[in-house]
């Protein structure tokens, strides 16, 4: 981890959020955040880890306890993933709603994972009515206008650098600068030109440069804007 943080620092990445996708990983995320000043944590149960009967309503208790830690800046990832879990219609929404209500209770942003489930995710998000939502690895450009209108923040990851993602690449030109962050989703989804490699925080610089080019903006200006948005969203 220290080498990844050093590489990130060398690439100009000053702060990062590591995410737990279940109890053990969430505890590890908090431990990493404790050990490294640049690292912050999000804690929760990912929809893929909630499915197939693995979510229990009492899980919200350990999430609430972990979230008391100073360096926990968000709840999540929570949401829906129909790509990985088609046969457990109830677990994912229960985990999603419970974590959404906890985020509201604690005044923390909810980090959303959604895959092949855009419309169903939007239904639950509207119902939750949260003020602070991060659409992590933003992939639902068809809902961008509503997301902006509701005050949500888009996390832009490596897929924006893939030429085939025409709609996403167009959408990032329309996101207000104060509603956008850049992220890696490491170790997945490495951006061009690192595609095919194991992703790491340092590579977010490539994503930032791509987004700046798509928007016709100066990289340093977009760096400042996305960093300011992250500071506002995560409260650091
Ligand atoms: Zn995700």
As for the CATH topology of the largest domain, it is TIM Barrel
Global shape: globular
Tell me the CATH superfamily of the largest domain.
Answer: Metal-dependent hydrolases
Strand order of the largest sheet: 1-2-3-4-5-6-7
Estimated share of beta-strand residues: 5-15%
Distance between the termini: 21 Å
- Could you tell me the mean pLDDT? 95
What structural class is derived from the secondary structure elements? alpha/beta
CATH class of the largest domain: Alpha Beta
**Chemical compounds bound to the protein:** zinc ion
**Any low-confidence stretches, pLDDT <50, length ≥5?**
none
What would CATH call the architecture of the largest domain?
Alpha-Beta Barrel
Query: Biggest sheet, in brief?
Result: 7 strands, parallel
Radius of gyration: 17 Å
Number of helices: 10
The total domain count is 2
SSE order, as H and E? Answer: HEHEHHEHEHEHEHEHH
Please, could you describe this protein's structure?
Strand 6, helix 8 and strand 7 form a beta-alpha-beta unit. This protein has helices spanning 2-10, 23-35, 47-50, 59-66, 91-106, 118-128, 144-149, 166-171, 204-215, 219-234; strands at residues 16-19, 39-43, 72-81, 110-115, 133-135, 153-156, 180-182. The chain is globular and about 45 Å long. It has 10 helices and 7 strands. Helices cover 43% and strands 15% of the residues. The protein has a 7-stranded parallel sheet. With 236 residues, the chain is of the alpha/beta class. The relative contact order is 0.12. It has 2 domains: 1-119, Alpha-Beta Barrel (TIM Barrel), CATH 3.20.20; 137-236, TIM Barrel. Residues 77, 113, 136-137 line the site of zinc ion (ZN).
């Amino acid at each position: 981890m220290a080498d990844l943080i050093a590489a990130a620092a060398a690439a100009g990445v000053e702060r990062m959020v590591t995410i737990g996708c279940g109890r053990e990983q969430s505890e590890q995320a908090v431990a990493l955040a404790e050990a490294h000043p640049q690292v912050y944590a999000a804690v929760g149960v990912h929809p893929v880890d909630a499915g197939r009967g693995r979510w229990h309503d009492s899980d919200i208790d350990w999430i609430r306890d972990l979230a008391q830690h100073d360096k926990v800046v968000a709840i999540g990832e929570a949401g829906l993933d129909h790509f990985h879990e088609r046969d457990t219609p109830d677990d994912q929404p229960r985990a999603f709603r419970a974590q959404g209500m906890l985020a509201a209770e604690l005044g923390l942003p909810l980090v959303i994972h959604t895959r092949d489930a855009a419309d169903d995710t939007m239904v639950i998000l509207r119902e939750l009515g949260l003020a602070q939502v991060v659409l992590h690895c933003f992939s639902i450009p068809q809902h961008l206008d509503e997301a902006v209108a509701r005050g949500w923040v888009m996390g832009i990851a490596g897929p924006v650098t893939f030429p085939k993602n025409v709609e996403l690449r167009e959408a990032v030109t329309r996101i207000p600068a104060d509603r956008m962050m850049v992220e890696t989703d490491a170790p997945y989804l490495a951006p061009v030109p690192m595609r095919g490699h194991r992703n790491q925080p340092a590579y977010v610089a490539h994503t930032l440069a791509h987004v700046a080019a798509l928007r016709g903006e100066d990289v340093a200006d977009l760096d400042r804007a996305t960093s300011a948005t992250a500071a506002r969203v995560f409260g650091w």
